[in-house]
Design a protein that fits this description.
The protein has about 350 residues and is α+β, with helices and mostly antiparallel strands. It contains three helices and 14 strands. The protein is about 15% helix and about 35% strand.
Length: about 350
């Protein structure tokens, strides 16, 4: 809970340790202006759907860029406050282990993964089914980690809401200031964060740049760690002032031996509500839980396949901007559901 007090330019009382360290003037803007704007942005984002195309390129020192393993994939995301559907459709198969089409879907009752192994396969097959809350949480954690920049482009880290990021015990805000870029006044925040379950307590550095003129939308986010860094740039439609008018998300991962450039070009964004039925097994031509099959007289839960999906369709894991934060998500979810 936030403590509301009177403050001057030199004194500001806060209850969250994550806010300690920034200069008072900009800190006040982050808290008074930014936090409500982020809360409103989150509420709006949870009921939108979008589609786009992912490209993946690799560049080694002194060499030209070449297409990566996950190049030219069509992505579709549907969201509701308590539902999520993420689909990936390949145009070509890089190897025999990759699925041509995949869908991971969450609803309040169960979660599942469906796939089509070949480009020409017509029917979906059930690859994984989670009916317990613990299984669903693990599955959702994995999706947020591995595809966060696709399913939540507005967040620094997909598993944590924008308005709650600086409240986390593993985040320490170091500095916040005002910068000017392209004749716009922006707010930049830099912070340290660690992984609670990391035995080495590896220190990570983060930077986020927000645009108050666009509802405090995030324009850039950077994660730096020893010998590597990830930078994501979010471009917005010039004709639309909304903080959710994404046009393109570009992630550049710099590694010692190569550079990876991943781009998500958003082709459409819809505010139309999606029906509950689109987040169920029958939406993919699969029998509903408890529905009778053709060869059975009574209803039966569809069998749960072996958990081999992690090594199949989750090839898009290479796209994660913050894949190194798995332990952080686990701690966050435990505390939020406690």
């Amino acid at each position: 809970m936030w403590l509301v007090v009177r403050c001057t330019a030199t004194a500001l009382v806060l209850t969250s340790p994550g806010w300690i360290g920034a200069d008072d003037a900009t800190l006040t803007r982050l808290k008074v202006e930014g936090r409500p704007a982020w809360r409103a942005l989150e509420e709006s984002a949870t009921s939108r759907s979008w589609t786009g195309r992912v490209t993946d390129e690799v560049q080694k020192p002194g060499e030209a860029k070449v297409p990566g393993r996950y190049h030219n994939i069509e992505v579709a995301v549907r969201r509701r406050p308590d539902r999520l559907a993420f689909e990936a459709h390949r145009k070509e198969l890089p190897d025999k282990q990759s699925a041509a089409h995949s869908a991971i879907v969450f609803n309040p009752t169960y979660s599942f993964i469906a796939t089509k192994p070949q480009l020409t396969t017509k029917n979906w097959s059930l690859s994984n089914l989670a009916v317990s809350e613990a299984e669903a949480v693990r599955m959702r954690d994995g999706v947020e980690l591995e595809h966060g920049w696709l399913i939540a482009p507005h967040r620094f880290y997909a598993g944590v809401r924008m308005d709650e990021w600086f409240d986390q015990p593993f985040v320490k805000l170091l500095h916040a200031d005002t910068v000017r870029e392209d004749d716009r006044e922006l707010v930049r925040a830099t912070f340290d964060f660690t992984l609670p379950a990391d035995p080495n307590r590896t220190a990570l550095q983060g930077e986020a740049v927000y645009d108050p003129g666009r509802g405090w939308a995030m324009l850039r986010r950077v994660i730096s760690r020893p010998k590597a860094s990830d930078e994501a740039k979010i471009q917005y439609a010039a004709s639309e002032p909304s903080p959710l008018a994404w046009e393109r998300v570009t992630v550049t991962s710099k590694l010692p031996s190569r550079e990876l450039i991943k781009t998500f070009t958003i082709e459409s964004i819809s505010q139309d509500p999606t029906p509950d039925e689109s987040y169920t097994l029958p939406a993919y031509g699969l029998p509903e839980i408890g529905a009778p099959r053709d060869d059975q007289a009574g209803g039966q839960t569809p069998p749960t396949p072996p958990p081999s999906w992690r090594w199949g369709w989750i090839g898009l894991a290479a796209f994660s901007v913050v894949g190194l934060c798995l332990a952080a998500t686990a701690v966050y979810r435990k505390r939020r559901t406690a």
